[in-house]
Amino acid sequence: MFAGEYLCKVDEKGRFIVPSPIREQLEADGQAVVFLKGPEQSLLIYSTKEWEKVLDRARTSLDEDQSRLFMHHIVSEAGTSDIDKTGRILIPGRLRKLVPVDEDQEIILVGLYHRMEIWNPSEWRRYLARAEDRYEQNMAKILNLL
């Protein structure tokens, strides 16, 4: 399970060093990850093991038309990358453009159960501010889980 929020530096080639707690989990599931376009200028990242589970769920739960839409609009846009020997992952170029990187070349990596998200730090802060009211409204139920 992925959890936590990490500030990561992106180099000129679009690579970032995966924080060690995340890296250990990814390496246990294989050396590759799958990137997808996410909501609100973010990217989703799945380990290859988790991505296979998504594909299996799609195969078993979607009808033929839904499956074609899933393949054409989700799977066709996916990009893969391997974790290199120094623990870096390259964000595929066409997907990197979806998360505008500021001059400081930093991203926020957020662990979300079985996947992760990449955000521009400014966009992440704006998203959290917009979601604050919903969090407040649901706070009692959320805290009961703890």
UniProtKB/TrEMBL annotation:
Key words of the record: Cytoplasm, DNA-binding, Repeat, Transcription, Transcription regulation
SpoVT-AbrB domain segment(s): 5-50, 78-123
Range of residues in the leader sequence: none
One BP annotation, GO: negative regulation of DNA-templated transcription initiation
Pfam hit, one: MraZ
GO molecular function annotations of the record: DNA-binding transcription factor activity; transcription cis-regulatory region binding
Subunit: Forms oligomers.
Protein name: Transcriptional regulator MraZ
